[in-house]
């Protein structure tokens, strides 16, 4: 496996303040190809900066623009094709846009953090939600 090139990807744990003003909601995307609920992310284009790739992937998958915040822990795993993969993640506050189903994502839901943790398919995505909450508390004083 040492000769297999690393697949580089980037994404965001996308959040917004809830309409009630009490707390936040997180965006999760449903990808029919993988039958999963996850955070918006995707492979970087050749020579693309990871931050730029994260912003592009959020826009492509969710239709949302966002402001990147703190970098969250990087995920390392073996992808479905058996290749090593590294995904860098950022906290990202949604600043505008509108979702429309697309080739990769059929649905987008906004959920409170506790519900989002229950909805995500993979444990590493649930851990990223906890990491986001810690980062937001540290940087913005959110509850």
Walkthrough of the structure:
The structure is a single chain. This protein has about 140 residues and is α+β, with helices and mostly antiparallel strands. The protein contains three helices and seven strands. It has helices at about 50-60, 115-120, 125-140, and strands spanning about 5-15, 25-30, 35-40, 40-45, 65-80, 85-95, 105-110. Strands 1, 2, 3, 4, 5, 6 and 7 form a seven-stranded mixed sheet that branches. It is globular. The model has no long low-confidence stretch (mean pLDDT about 95).
Fill in the keyword field for this structure.
alpha+beta, single chain, seven-stranded mixed beta sheet, globular, 3 helices
Q: Please tally the β strands and state the result.
A: 7
On the 0-100 scale, what is the average pLDDT? 94
> What does the overall shape look like?
globular
Low-confidence stretches: none
- Biggest β-sheet strands, sense, barrel: 7 strands, mixed
Number of helices: 3
Q: What letter string, H or E per element, gives the SSE order?
A: EEEEHEEEHH
Gyration radius (Cα, Å) is 15 Å
Q: Which structural class fits the helix and strand makeup?
A: alpha+beta
As an assembly, this protein is single chain
Could you estimate the helical fraction of the residues in percent? 25-40%
Strand content: 35-45%
N- to C-terminal separation?
Answer: 44 Å
């Amino acid at each position: 496996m040492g000769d297999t090139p690393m697949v580089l990807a980037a994404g965001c744990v996308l959040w917004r303040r809830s309409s009630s003003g009490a707390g936040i909601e997180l965006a999760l995307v449903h990808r029919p190809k993988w039958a999963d609920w996850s955070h918006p992310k995707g492979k970087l284009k050749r020579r693309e900066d990871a931050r730029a790739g994260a912003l592009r992937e959020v826009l492509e998958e969710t239709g949302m623009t966002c402001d990147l915040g703190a970098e969250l822990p990087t995920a390392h795993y073996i992808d479905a094709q058996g290749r090593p993969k590294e995904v860098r993640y950022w906290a990202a506050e949604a600043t505008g846009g509108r979702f429309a189903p697309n080739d990769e994502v059929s649905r987008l839901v906004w959920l409170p953090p506790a519900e989002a943790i229950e909805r995500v398919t993979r444990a590493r995505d649930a851990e990223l939600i906890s990491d986001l909450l810690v980062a937001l508390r540290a940087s913005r004083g959110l509850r």
